[in-house]
């Protein structure tokens, strides 16, 4: 087998593996956001930080930029790394927008998600500059 053929086969296997992990991510995205919400409602700061960080990094990897940014914001808020602490109402509003964005991950709605994010952005920006 030629080097070129080996490279093509290796790339095909890698793409299949990444595709499987991406399907797994999308398949349990809603459950993970529910777990994040539970940690928030229980004021489990360490749990929120961990869950938000994991969602933030995986959402970035698999093409969910608004989820990435909201999770980064939540992580920073619960870590105390904020310019201005948001109100509980703002945190819940952001959480509800996140839940709506992931409610049907197999059929994302980019226009709806963009509108939600634009509405949230002023609140997000007050607390964290680099979202």
Topology-level CATH name: Four Helix Bundle (Hemerythrin (Met), subunit A)
Secondary-structure element order, as H and E? Answer: HHHHH
Q: How many alpha or pi helices?
A: 5
Count of beta strands: 0
Described by the principal axes of the CA atoms, the overall outline is elongated
Profile the largest sheet: none
**Cα-atom radius of gyration:** 17 Å
Structural class by SSE content? mainly alpha
Give the integer mean of the pLDDT values.
89
Q: What's the CATH class, please?
A: Mainly Alpha
Low-confidence stretches: none
Q: What distance lies between the first and last C-alpha atoms, to the nearest angstrom?
A: 48 Å
**How many domains make up the 3D coordinates?**
1
Helix proportion of residues, in percent? over 70%
Instruction: Give the name of the CATH architecture.
Output: Up-down Bundle
Measured by DSSP, the beta-strand proportion falls in: under 5%
Descriptive report:
The chain is mainly alpha-helical. The chain has one domain: Four Helix Bundle (Hemerythrin (Met), subunit A). Helices cover 79% and strands 0% of the residues. The protein is built from five helices and no strands. It has helices at residues 3-41, 45-61, 65-79, 88-102, 110-127. Helix 1 (3-41) packs antiparallel against helix 2 and helix 3 (65-79) runs antiparallel to helix 4 (88-102). The chain is elongated. The mean pLDDT is 89.
């Amino acid at each position: 087998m030629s080097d070129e053929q080996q490279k093509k086969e290796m790339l095909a296997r890698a793409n299949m593996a990444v595709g499987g992990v991406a399907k797994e991510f999308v398949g349990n995205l809603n459950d993970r956001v529910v777990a994040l919400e539970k940690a928030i409602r229980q004021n489990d700061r360490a749990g929120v930080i961990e869950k938000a960080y994991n969602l933030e990094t995986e959402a970035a990897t698999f093409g969910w930029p608004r989820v990435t940014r909201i999770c980064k914001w939540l992580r920073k808020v619960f870590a105390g790394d904020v310019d201005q602490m948001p109100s509980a109402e703002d945190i819940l509003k952001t959480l509800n927008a996140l839940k709506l964005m992931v409610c049907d991950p197999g059929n994302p709605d980019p226009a709806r998600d963009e509108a939600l994010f634009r509405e949230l952005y002023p609140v997000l920006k007050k607390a964290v500059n680099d979202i």
